[in-house]
C-alpha cells in the first residue's frame, strides 16, 4: 500500500526501545484518508510521536471492514518503495498486486504477501471486482543497513493455522506458539494473527530480546490484565518471556508483531525509507525522472526504478518535499 497523503510528514525515527517491559503502553490510532473524499480511510498506529518503531516494524495501517461493492475500494496506481518490506494481511476481501520485479499475485485472507523493496521497486494494488468487504492490515518493516540495497523480491506464504484450546494462531513471520514461518526476514522478527474465543485465555511465550505490539482488530484484549480496545495497539518492551492474552465476553482477533530493536535511525517520507534527508531527495528525484514528472536530477544510481508491466493507470507522482529541516524524534526511554 502507498502512503498517498498529499503532505506526508518527514520523520527521523531513532530506535530507542523503552527500558521497562512491565507496563503496557497503549498506542491509539489516527485516521488517515488515502486518496480523496471517497477513498479509503485507514487507522494508523505506527509511526507516531509516542513511538516510532517496534523492532524493525515502522508502519501499521488498519482498514475496514469497508463495503466496497459500490465504491473504488483500494485503487493504488504504481508507486515506489525503498529500504523496506511491505507486509499485506487480509481478514476479508481480495487485492491484486503487480510489481516492477515481475511479480503478480493475489492477496487473500490468511495468506501473507511480502514484498522486499530493497534498492527500489514500484507496485500497484487494486481490490478485485468480486470484493464486497475489504478488511485488513498493511505493515512495513525497515531493512537494516546491510540489507537495504538488496535486490527487490516477493514472497507468498499460506500458514497453516494452529488450533489451541480457545485460540487459533497463524504465524506468518518468525516463530510463535511453537510454529515457525519459513519466510526470510532481514532482522529477527515475528508476525502472527491470533484469534481468541469469548472468555478464553492464551499464555504466549515471548523472545525476551524482542519488543512487541498487539494490534486489536475485534473485541477487547486483556494484555497481562491491561485492556486494549479494538483499533488500539498495545506495546510491551524487551525483557519479557511470556504474556497472557485474554478475551472477555466477545471473541478477540489481533495481530501480533515484534522484533529485536533495530538500533538504527531511519528517515521515512512518503513511500521511502532512508537514512538521511539527502537520500530521500535522491530517491524522489529518481522516481520523478522514471515517470517523466520532472527532469532527471543528480541521484544515486543504486536506485533504479521501473514500472510494473500492463498498467492502465498513470503512476503516482511524488509529493513536494518539505522545506523544513529534520527534527529528531525518539521513542520514550
From TrEMBL:
Domain Pirin C-terminal: residue ranges: 192-289
InterPro entries recorded: Pirin, Pirin_C_dom, Pirin_N_dom, RmlC-like_jellyroll, RmlC_Cupin_sf
Record domain Pirin N-terminal: where: 41-140
The organism's place on the tree of life at top rank: Bacteria
Gene3D superfamilies: Jelly Rolls (2.60.120.10)
Family classification: Belongs to the pirin family.
UniProt protein name: Redox-sensitive bicupin YhaK (Pirin superfamily)
Source species of the chain: Arthrobacter stackebrandtii
Amino acid at each position: 500500500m502507498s502512503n498517498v497523503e498529499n503532505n506526508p510528514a518527514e520523520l527521523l525515527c531513532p530506535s530507542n526501545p523503552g527500558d521497562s517491559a512491565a507496563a503496557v503502553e497503549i498506542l491509539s490510532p489516527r485516521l488517515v484518508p488515502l486518496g480523496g473524499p471517497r477513498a479509503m480511510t485507514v487507522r494508523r498506529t505506527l509511526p507516531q510521536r509516542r513511538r516510532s518503531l517496534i523492532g524493525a516494524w515502522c508502519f501499521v495501517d488498519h482498514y475496514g471492514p469497508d463495503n466496497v461493492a459500490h465504491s473504488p475500494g483500494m485503487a493504488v496506481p504504481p508507486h515506489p518503495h525503498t529500504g523496506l518490506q511491505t507486509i499485506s494481511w487480509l481478514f476479508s476481501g481480495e487485492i491484486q498486486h503487480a510489481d516492477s520485479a515481475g511479480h503478480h499475485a493475489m492477496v487473500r485472507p490468511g495468506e501473507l504477501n511480502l514484498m522486499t523493496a530493497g534498492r527500489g521497486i514500484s507496485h500497484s494494488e487494486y481490490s478485485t471486482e468480486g470484493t464486497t468487504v475489504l478488511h485488513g492490515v498493511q505493515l512495513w518493516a525497515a531493512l537494516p543497513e546491510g540489507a537495504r540495497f538488496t535486490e527487490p523480491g516477493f514472497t507468498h506464504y499460506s500458514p497453516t493455522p494452529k488450533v489451541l484450546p480457545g485460540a487459533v494462531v497463524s504465524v506468518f513471520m518468525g516463530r510463535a506458539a511453537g510454529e515457525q514461518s519459513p519466510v526470510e526476514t532481514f532482522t529477527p522478527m515475528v508476525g502472527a494473527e491470533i484469534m481468541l474465543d469469548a472468555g478464553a485465555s492464551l499464555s504466549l511465550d515471548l523472545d525476551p530480546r524482542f519488543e512487541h505490539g498487539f494490534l486489536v482488530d475485534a473485541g477487547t484484549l486483556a494484555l497481562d490484565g491491561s485492556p486494549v480496545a479494538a483499533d488500539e495497539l498495545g506495546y510491551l518492551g524487551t525483557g519479557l518471556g511470556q504474556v497472557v492474552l485474554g478475551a472477555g465476553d466477545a471473541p478477540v482477533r489481533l495481530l501480533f508483531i515484534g522484533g529485536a530493536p533495530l538500533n538504527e535511525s531511519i528517515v521515512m517520507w512518503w513511500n521511502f525509507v532512508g537514512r538521511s534527508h539527502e537520500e530521500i531527495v535522491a530517491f524522489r528525484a529518481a522516481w520523478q525522472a522514471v515517470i517523466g514528472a520532472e527532469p532527471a536530477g543528480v541521484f544515486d544510481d543504486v536506485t533504479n526504478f521501473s514500472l510494473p508491466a500492463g498498467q492502465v493507470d498513470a503512476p503516482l507522482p511524488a509529493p513536494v518535499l518539505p522545506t523544513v529541516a529534520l527534527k529528531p524524534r525518539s521513542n520514550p526511554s
